[in-house]
Amino acid sequence: MHTSVRFCLLTIALGVVSIASASADDQDSGSLRAGMIGLDTSHVIAFTKIFNAEAPAEDVAGVKIVAGYPGGTDIPASADRVE
Description:
Blueprint: H1 3-17, E1 19-20, H2 24-29, E2 32-37, H3 42-51, E3 63-69, H4 76-79
Parallel strand pairs: 2-3
Antiparallel strand pairs: 1-2
């Protein structure tokens, strides 16, 4: 699978598994807790650093990555990278 396809799939997965915070404080502040499915690429680390930065870019401000699920591809070259 090409890197660009994996990037698109990971981005879609991130959007699908994003959930609004259950606590009133988080809802009032406009924050969004999100998770990722498929932790077998370097994109996971890069995206998490972008979203969880102390001063994130304006377009991702308020989003925090709080969960990850290692499931995803069954391609050995990629699946073997998940610890």
